[in-house]
Design goal:
Layout lengths: L2 H23 L3 E3 H11 L5 H13 L3 E7 L6 E7 L1 H7 L17
Antiparallel strand pairs: 1-3, 2-3
Amino acid sequence: MTARDDIRADLIGSRRTFILRLLVEVEGYVLESVLTKHILKAFPTASREDVQQDLAHLITNGCLAEKWTATPDGGRSIRNLVLTPRGEDAAFGRLEVPGVWRSRWDRG
């Protein structure tokens, strides 16, 4: 692994930790579009595809769950993301999750 690869892996892990912390701040539930907007603002070099990969990784590792909600007019469904207890533990550094930076975050 080159230094560039190490930096990229660190950036991805940091971004995933940021996602979990954001969800803690919004009490564990957020619209995907709102979350994506904030991630892209905080990580300007990230793409929407990067964010989708991060979300898929966090869902696969049990840190996030999806909840789909139909629009009032019965049209398309809206994707919501829900923080799981495992995700909250990872956000506070109580649990190590592959591909996610080990947090030392203390909200107290």
